[in-house]
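Troubleshooting: if your tokenizer reports a length mismatch, compare against these two reference records.
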Amino acid sequence: MAQNMGEDGRFGLDRRTKLLGPVRLDSGVQFAPVEFAYETYGELNGDKSNAILICHALTGDQYVASTHPRTGKPGWWTRLVGEGKPVDPARHCIICINVLGSCMGSSGPASFDPGTGEPYAMDFPVITIADMVRAQAILLDHLGIERLACVIGGSMGGMQALTWASLFPDRVQSAIVIASTARHSAQNIAFHEVGRQAIMADPNWQGGNYYGSVDQPDAGLAVARMAAHITYLSEEGLTQKFGRQLQDRDTKTFGFDADFQVESYLRHQGLSFVERFDANSYLYITRAMDYYDLAEEHGGVLAKAFSGTRTRFCLVSFDSDWLYPTIESKRVVQALNAAGAAASFVELSSPFGHDAFLLEAPEMNRIIDGFLKAGGL
């Protein structure tokens, strides 16, 4: 099904397909047709027992281990995925799917509505994390993959991994959940709302109908990215990297230019983000994360979401992550223990906050490698 080298010479193979579906959304909408953009690495073995699904985070995409076609940068998890890495295409068939609602090829607000021939914009249906997972299941059915050896994800990807194990327990042999949570807190929702309001306050947003316009809501989206990026870091990490260092000049300007290096860094993050992401997708996906509460449909009892599960779980948190602190992972572990699930957990030390799982983390890699091999992978 998959191969190591894409037709364009890139590591991995970029794939796109449109399926009739439909995806039954939590809102009650039967959404169809569904476009999927995904990357594959490695090959399915004879009994199709080596498939690993990697789920991306809010601003991620399917280019987990191959060059991004828009930015030219390496894949976002090349430290974990690749030859000789814990997730290795020599042993595993690796799939990474752009989530429903995103802007990198899967159906989202920027996609064309077949009924009107125009972009959906804000007429795209409201989606949830569970909707993303149901869509992924439809694609895996199409690919002939009935069972996943492992689902791996960090942050929003971890939410998807937990949801996979809850919605489709018979299809998931194991799950690795990193720097994540089983529900979004009020603080998480508040930060997202600041970002959404920044986008919608941009006059170029035009109520979401900016597709085809010369002027895009870039300023609002850049501010949203800046605000969110602060939550991905830690005070220790920011202090180590920037402190109160001024830009390379002898005097302060006392104006609104970027006097401090940390200001310049955040502005760069915002400006580079608008080159690859869609403002409406940001609105939809952050709202999906805010709706996320895995226990809600189980009477508020998280353990019931995993009742009778035979999935093996590995959870990893980082001590400097204040977006999804260790207590959130511990709540999930407690629920898994109450459900009788096989679960292991470790908190790792890092100065890099929530983003630690995307950076150099040899101890995390060692844990993931051991967990996979213990399961015969």
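Reference record two:
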Amino acid sequence: MRTVAGEQQASMRRVCRVLGQRRASVYYKLRRANEDDQIADQLKVLTMRHLNWGFRLLFNYLRLVGHCWNHKKVYRIYRSLELNLRKPIKRKKIKRDNPNTLAASAVNQDWSLDFLSDKVNSETQIRILNVMDEFSRKCLLAVAQPSFKARKLMRYLEQMVETYGRPQYIRCDNGWSATAAGVD
């Protein structure tokens, strides 16, 4: 527009009116790039110094120091730098009905039985049977096989009963169950 005004020797006001532009757009100077770099530098320095500070603390500190940047601009740069903190996961507490009954007071009183599974070489799946004594935290059995049939599991448990004796309780993922004293 300035070149048009210079060639035609017309005033800027007249050229803007003919072209349908505002005069403010002619004199506007972009300051955003320099300001964005300055904000990014300040945010990087502050996050290195204060690792646990989130956006709100950083922004309030910048305001206290004397920077009068808009919070939306600072937040946009904060997100583009990926400085946002991850929210901690709230873990669900397991409610125990009878916490006194869960504690083992002697060896071979309670056993924990659990199955784990894993893939080897991204092809074959292996299942692992783990049996632990609750009181001594000793691993009584750890067997890895492609699959466990019920008969095979019963055979392993019978061998363990012969070796270690019969437990009062066997605890599984589904809870605990009392072993029958008379049933073999």
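Descriptive notes for reference record two:
- The helical segments are 2-8, 12-19, 24-27, 32-49, 55-65, 71-80, 99-102, 150-164.
- The chain has three domains: 1-30, 31-85, 105-173.
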